[in-house]
What we know:
Elements: E1 7-9, E2 12-15, H1 17-27, E3 34-37, E4 45-46, E5 50-51, E6 61-62, E7 66-69, H2 71-74, E8 83-91, E9 105-109, E10 121-124, E11 153-156, E12 166-167, E13 178-180, H3 188-196, E14 201-205, E15 209-215, E16 219-220, E17 231-232, H4 235-246, E18 249-256, H5 260-270, E19 276-280, H6 290-299, E20 319-325, E21 327-328, E22 332-338, E23 343-348, H7 352-370, E24 380-385, E25 391-392, E26 398-406, E27 411-414, H8 423-427, E28 431-435, E29 441-442, E30 447-452
Parallel strand pairs: 2-20, 8-9, 15-18, 15-19, 16-17, 19-23, 21-26, 24-27
Antiparallel strand pairs: 1-2, 3-14, 4-14, 5-13, 6-12, 7-9, 7-10, 8-11, 20-22, 22-23, 24-30, 25-29, 26-27, 26-28, 28-30
Helix pairs in contact: 1-7, 4-7, 5-6
Amino acid sequence: xxxxxxxxxxxxxxxxxxxxxxxxxxxxxxxxxxxxxxxxxxxxxxxxxxxxxxxxxxxxxxxxxxxxxxxxxxxxxxxxxxxxxxxxxxxxxxxxxxxxxxxxxxxxxxxxxxxxxxxxxxxxxxxxxxxxxxxxxxxxxxxxxxxxxxxxxxxxxxxxxxxxxxxxxxxxxxxxxxxxxxxxxxxxxxxxxxxxxxxxxxxxxxxxxxxxxxxxxxxxxxxxxxxxxxxxxxxxxxxxxxxxxxxxxxxxxxxxxxxxxxxxxxxxxxxxxxxxxxxxxxxxxxxxxxxxxxxxxxxxxxxxxxxxxxxxxxxxxxxxxxxxxxxxxxxxxxxxxxxxxxxxxxxxxxxxxxxxxxxxxxxxxxxxxxxxxxxxxxxxxxxxxxxxxxxxxxxxxxxxxxxxxxxxxxxxxxxxxxxxxxxxxxxxxxxxxxxxxxxxxxxxxxxxxxxxxx
Length: 454
């Protein structure tokens, strides 16, 4: 949907969802690359192409436990007329000096062990008697057992073609190949590949450090008893978990009371470990909207992207702009920068659903932008509304309703109502149904944009 110009609402203009997101992303710069150990780089974005220094595997090796043989020596072998070969030694994974397999000979070989000189194929142990002189074997005599336990010869009951059960040198990747391209997010398989080609460190953009603060004197931490008029702090847990899910390192700060000085001091203490600050609550027009009071009085209105303000180099940084958006839920929002390093700050509403929806629309893209990812938004699809009645939506507002998406049928069903306090409904939703600003009613069977949260 295209961005619309801010609308005027009295003395304060009304921002569109698209314009607010564009303002946030315009102020975000990807974090500077650093060199990290492999496990520390998990979840980070690679900033350089990585080429393969050595072929994988670096030598011909066996894909089975069995016997390394010459093809001619097992030609025509069968259960009735097995090929009888002299066993000249063992080849284990990591073996250095290798025995040479000559005519009529074989070597016991383990999975991953290098193919010895003279050998052309590997016959699995199940095709042999395991050197015991009996019938088909299911395993080998352990290397720690007495040598005579394996006897000096092995009977092979099946023929083998050249290169059978042999992993060729370079069959995975060749030296000089591109292993991973810049922009790759490093997950477990990518970490494994880097280790396999000998890379102990890698240059990446680090995972952003996101500090989450919730505000409100009524908030109690889970596990503590509730007093009259108090509720449990769920927002900070939800947003910290969402930040981790987006790829960040999240630090959750316990609820801050409704006191502007306390909030300013808390924010100042947290700046040392924050690439992004996220607050929830206190951004509307109430008498105890502490975030708005604290940050407005400190930094003033920062304007677009928080680039204005007083210019003082203390906790205020560039300033935070508090604005109203043409959306439901999540109308009140704050955005700007704070502190001497102008750390980005997003101030979200306090209602649980408003807070979470705002995170998905604005904070998650900011985190992904800090990581240097080109695609910062959740995937979206078009789906048919499956409902018993039409869904209403306020004129001039882009509404985001919780939904359950069925990929098989291409339908989406509403979950719970539109109230911004309905946490239980949010917990059972896997998507957000988007109702455009110019639509006030969506009939069953109509097509909607659906943002996938999973």
